[in-house]
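Justification of computing resources. Each target in the renewal requires a structure prediction run like the one illustrated here; the chain below, 214 residues long, is used simply to show the kind of job we budget for.
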Amino acid sequence: MFTGIVEGLCKVERIQKKSDSMVVSVNLGDLSNDVKNGDSIAINGTCLTVTDIKDQVATFDVLTETITRTSLKDVKPTIKVNVERALRVGDRMGGHFVTGHVDGTGVIEKKTTQPGQTDLWVKVDKDLGSMMIEKGSIAIDGISLTLVDVTDSAFSVALIPFTLAETTLGFKGAGDIVNLELDMIGKWVKRLIPSEYSKPSSITLDKLKDQGFA
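Resulting structure tokens:
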């Protein structure tokens, strides 16, 4: 479990691509303190397991499902990625509950700078957009953010200068792909509501009048 509060930007050291998987090595710097094999770390919002740690460089196996669903297939050596270590019991919850299980990707449409903030618009598939609400939470590349505007196929968030300076959203621009994890509450609502509302409704005007609602 993560919070969406990125701890640092870390450089990708090596990429080893295989037929159906890849191995990614990231220099965690000071964030490598206390990291051991088997630990969970979010890389651009994707929960990965440390398979080796040496001289501050952590190695991760990335399997087919992750390659298909996330933007990690596009990472290259020297690129910097957002890093967050797994939440510990008793840690402060600064963002929102983030699992590190990416739902899909979006494409940055535009970044518009205003005094004190930058508005970021991201294009998404309609199935992802249908689970978003204004003022709801979303994790973009593992960053906990609040949705501002939501349409069927796009959404916007407001970024403060600190977020731009400390995360991938500072150097990503129009056309770049970002990982998206939707608020888990929204996903459960979508899962439950169709099965409930696909049944014929037993509510009638007479029933509403009897109960004092009409």
